[in-house]
Amino acid sequence: MSQFILSLITAIFIGGVAGYLGSLMLTKRMALVGGPLGHLALPGAALALLYSFNIFWGALGTIVIGAIIIWLLEIKTKLPMETLTGLVFAAGVALSFLILPVSQAEEALIGDISKIGLTDTILAVILGTIVFLIIKKIYSKMILSGISEDLAKAEGVNVKKYNLIYLASIALIVALEVKIVGGLLTVAMLVIPASASNNFGKTLSHYSFGALTIGIISAIFGILLFKLVGFPAGPLIILSETLLFLISLFFKRKS
Amino acid sequence: MNNNFILKVKNLNVELDNEKVIENLSFEVKKREIFTILGPNGAGKTTLFRTLLGLIPYQGEISWEKSHGYPQGPKIGYLPERLSRSKFKELPISVREFFKFKESPDEKISEMLKSVGLENSKILEKGPGVLSSGQFQRMLIGWALIGNPQVLLFDEPMAGIDIGGEETIYSLLHKFWKERNLTILLITHDLNIVYKYSTNVLCLNKKAICSGPPREILTPENLESLYGTEIKFYKHTHT
Fold first, then answer.
1. Which residue range forms the structural domain that includes residue B140?
2. Is the Cβ pair A253, B92 closer than 8 Å?
């Protein structure tokens, strides 16, 4: 299979699932929990490039460690999520710039799809599908706990367990994203499709399906543009998502 | 347990962040009561509800009646405090989808909405955030009632509703209470409502300050020791 087809398939799966997963970030609390994980990918990607192993594993490693730290800090300190976010983000960026070789900075920051191989594509398809199915299963419970944690708990939802699944899913998807959009733009790939879809959709099912679709369309669009004009694919995908977001503003539901 | 009681609480102690929030609290709730918990802000009312629901750890005894068919205790419908419309405005969600969290079939949902006075067929597709505050409150009551709970725990359900709307909502709740064999535990600040509907009152300020039927215990002296200031409340002698 040609490299172009491989990167297209990879981008479609990751873009779509990232959009779908990101649609859970709409409530303030969930966004604050998920957001910082994206920034933790950068030091991992830098480490992987430095010691030349797959940046997926590098990013996943630092995200998982970071996620555990955030989770423990939240339980332990009960500090506002904003404070913990700031702390973790700053530490992540500082660490990256400490260890990142300048010559490889671009790949770590905005990704490089020409490095995508068959293994990466298989990983993206399998993990993407698994995460999609898991999130689909817990979607409504996550939304309910986003509306009111007590309400969800009273309905028998194990909020802690689902939060952990949610965080693990974000960790996996963000680590996959690094290959395509780099360590700097991962959060955008989660958040922008959902923001655009929020303007189109009136119901949860339209909205979540919309975010998935916008993620996929932008991935295809970005990769095709890359083929045509030669600019890096990662930023092109994010810009396609941004364009769809701008278009969605004309459809904004009134509430 | 005596069949007449649905809930017995004995020597309940709850600590949050190393601070005693509830101290040595004991009370009983009979079946079919409208049991009001009255107290100033920070008195532990919401904590008490959350404890009764098993959401936070405690010391002491909480026993819900375990009846035939309900070995885990009665089915509880719960409305937490501050469940505001603005929460729902953040989300693209329809009334139908909100009810689907409880996994109810469509007919049951429509039936329930009808019995809380939301008959408009389009309401299922609307967002809870765009309903009027009265409609929103009716919808929440319907949500709490779906699935036929035996006990309702309502934590200041009428915060933010104007006086006229509040009266309508309470009479609606009263109607369900009469029809459905419900036991209602209610947190409210509205003494008129307590006086009108409650069968029993627990005055709570970390510990029980007073308890009994509203007519007997809603005295100026009791209210002053509960709230720490003089509360003027005029009993309505007509009923």
1. 82-147
2. yes
